[in-house]
């Protein structure tokens, strides 16, 4: 009996570890991360092209957003992007933002 438990214990531990990693992101969270990544990439494009933070904010204020939370979040993401000394390409910023957002959302579950 003891040998059976010793043999089954690694399988049980592996199963528990696998189920903990297999959490899926809700559709709304995926949308939010994807949208935020796109916003960060656009802000990085504007920053690298020499557009001032003031002008970038004005562009955001004029844009029509689908959801109420988007305008404030876009302003925050843009401001953080401009505050960063990063000179990464927008595609790298998009990828990094998305991965970090997904990691954060999964950690909160």
Nutshell version of this structure?
The chain is mostly helical and 109 residues long. The protein is built from five helices and no strands.
Ordered list of secondary-structure elements with their pairings:
Layout: H1 2-21, H2 27-48, H3 53-62, H4 70-83, H5 90-108
Helix pairs in contact: 2-4, 2-5, 3-4
How would you sum up this structure, described in words?
Helix content is 78%, strand content 0%. α2 crosses α4 (70-83), α2 packs antiparallel against α5 (90-108) and α3 (53-62) runs antiparallel to α4. The model is unreliable at 16-20 (pLDDT under 50). With 109 residues, it is mostly helical. Residues 1-22 form the signal peptide.
Q: List how many beta strands DSSP finds.
A: 0
What's the N-to-C terminus distance? 37 Å
- Main beta sheet: strand number and arrangement? none
Fraction in beta strands: under 5%
What value does the Rg take, in angstroms?
Answer: 21 Å
